[in-house]
Amino acid sequence: MGTTFTVENRDQLVEAVAWAAAEQQPLEVIGGASKRGLGRPVQAAHTLDLSRLTGITLYEPEELVLSARAGTKLSEIEAALAEKNQMLAFEPADLSPLLGSAPDSASIGGALACNLSGPRRIKAGAARDHFLGVESASGRGELFKSGGRVVKNVTGYDLCKLICGSYGTLAVMSDVTVKVLPRPQKTYTVLILGLDDATAVQAMSRALGSPHEVSGAAHLPAPLAAGSDVSYTAKAGGAVTALRVEGPGPSVEYRCAALRRELADLGETEELHSQNSLAFWKELRDVRPLQAPAERAVWRISVAPNAGPEVVAAITEDSAYYDWGGGLVWLAMSAEGDAGAGRVREVLASVGGHATLIRAPLKVRAAEAVFQPQDPAMAALSARVKDGFDPHRVLNPGRMYAGL
After folding, report:
1. Residue 175: which of 35, 14, 48, 47 has the closest Cα?
2. Average of pLDDT values for 90-114?
3. pTM surpassing 0.70?
4. Confidence band, pLDDT 50/70/90 cuts, at residue 316
5. Do 2 and 42 have their domain in common?
6. Last residue of some domain: 265, 285, 305?
7. Which of 33, 153, 201, 260 is deepest in the core (most CB within 10 A)?
């Protein structure tokens, strides 16, 4: 029987990892467990549970900085920021509903460990760009710190960037510090109705290349638009291409009007305001259009925007939508066999890009490459980095790649 180590402070965390390193007993590291189904199955008999390692330890709204323990729920952090009209600008997704885990279980540590970045990434950057400081235990059972409370404090090796996106395979975070930003006064969304995928990508490219500071650009084909909880989107009667504009009220109104004039040649346009606009982008952030049916596999594919429609057409006739101006494709297909892994990798080999299998049955995730396969040079580099941080392979072994 495996043991679950539920830690409540930094010392207990370090002690648990040091024991695992000394005994060479692998640990599965979990926070809220909202993303336990993301990645390859971890090969570990024991569990390191960070769900009680919680609490906001520092919040200075005037300095735009917040620190929290790694197990702190995203919802708690977002609520505290909302009171001061601030936000996590990288817009981390809550994948709990998509992955079938407990609602409202996503943690700040998990979001950073997976480098989760939402629709605003095209303007504000990824999660790692807002990750200022970290306190972690390496797989050697040694505590280390990196970064600080402001960007200029980051000297030498910026280990925050390395840990962000490592899925808990290099170190276990105990405390994190992130940059926060003011929430926009107004959030409107310009909708262009009825475009096919290729034309939608052209429209998003035009909008993003304009001077109107678009902070989100996405396209929902007709079947997915019809499933939205935003009534206007659901009743649009066709595909919806969405362009988000944020900022002071008069500026937002002016820029939306300008976008509608400049894109009028493409078709009918409309706008979403206030709560409808916020709800629409939250749906896209959390991949709600592909949550049901739950038995389908879900892929996250990053390609050059103009290649997106071609990639989707070559892989599947099932459901897909586009974010990041077309550069990010969320795609659902049958989970039978290899869940489309062979076809996805084959298509991307000809056009470039990379793909991650976000949702699939455990047996598929155990048999197929969940993350983009690495070339020999990159695989050797990954192994050396793993050796430096976790030579005994005790932290989430096999979560990203076999043997690491």
Report:
1. 14
2. 95
3. yes
4. confident
5. yes
6. 285
7. 201
Residue 186 CB burial class (10 angstroms; 0-12, 13-18, ≥19):
middle
* Residue where the block lists tokens 């180590």: 5
Q: How confident is the model at residue 155 (pLDDT cuts 50, 70, 90)?
A: low
Do 179 and 197 belong together in one domain? Answer: no
Give 19-64 pLDDT, tens digit per residue: 999 999 999 999 999 999 999 999 899 999 999 999 999 999 999 9
Q: Give strand pairing partners of 242.
A: 191, 218
Q: What is the residue range of 247's domain? A: 186-285
Give the residue among 139, 164, 230 at the shortest CA–CA distance from 191: 230
What confidence score (pLDDT) does residue 2 get? 87
Among 239, 262, 285, the domain boundary falls at 285
**Same domain, yes or no: 246 and 99:** no
The answer on 392 and 356 residing in a single domain is no
* pLDDT exceeds cutoff 90 at 158: no
Domain with residue 260: its CATH number is: 3.30.70.2190
Same domain, 7 and 80: yes
In terms of domains, do 4 and 27 share one? Answer: yes
Q: What is the pLDDT of residues 335-361, one digit of tens each?
A: 999 999 999 999 999 999 999 999 999
> What pLDDT does 156 receive?
57
Quick one: 34 and 153 in the same domain? yes
Q: Are 37 and 136 members of one domain? A: yes
| Number of folded domains that form the chain | 3
Structure token pair of residue 65: 């900085």
